[in-house]
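Human: Not sure, check this?
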Amino acid sequence: MGFVKTLVKGAVVAKLVQVAQRELSKPENQRKAKEMFQKVQQRRNAH
C-alpha cells in the first residue's frame, strides 16, 4: 500500500509542476511574479 501512496504523491507533485510551468509561461503571470518579487526585495532592503 505504501508504494501506491508514493506513486500517487509523485503524480500529484508532477501535475502541480506542470500547472506551475504552464502558468509561468503566460506573459501576464510573468509580469505579476516579477512585481511580487520586487516588492519582497524592497521590503527586505527597507529593514
